[in-house]
Design goal:
3 helices, 5-stranded mixed beta sheet, alpha+beta
Length: about 170
Amino acid sequence: MKDTNWYVLFVMGGKEKQLCEFLNQEENWYAFYPKIELVRRKNSIDYLVEKPLFPSYIFIESNQKHIVFKEKLHVLRSRKTGIVKELHYEDDIPALHSEEKEYLQALLNDDFVLKKSTGFIEQDHVVIKDGPLKGYESKISKINRHKRNAILEVELLHKKVNVTVPLEILKRTE
């Protein structure tokens, strides 16, 4: 949906999928929770698992004005447990600012999954060869080569949140 708002809900942990299915029955709403694709190793075999990028948070994409959204959400909260509260900025603006929304859209694919990036380290600088982190090297605050991940700084509702993202460093050059 073009020109839509992204609203953020804080929900009970582990209920993201169930609540998204419930919320997606509404018109003019698309509820989702961003996921992250992680590489796990078991018995010397690598396999991919998807986990919530922001555990206990659901995003709702909607073209509805906030007052209508809020009224509808109030009714839905009375019908289903698990929705704790709607998040908003200190100045009471409810939806994500366009810069935050665009940043998240650039990192996530069409299914709202953050896939693995690959790169290398050249003289203490990270260079991303391919993947969603390409161009966002400056946002990486820490790398764990053994776990094949990095800590990425994401701004969400004017708060800096550190999230673990998949990153494979192929080599290090001096």
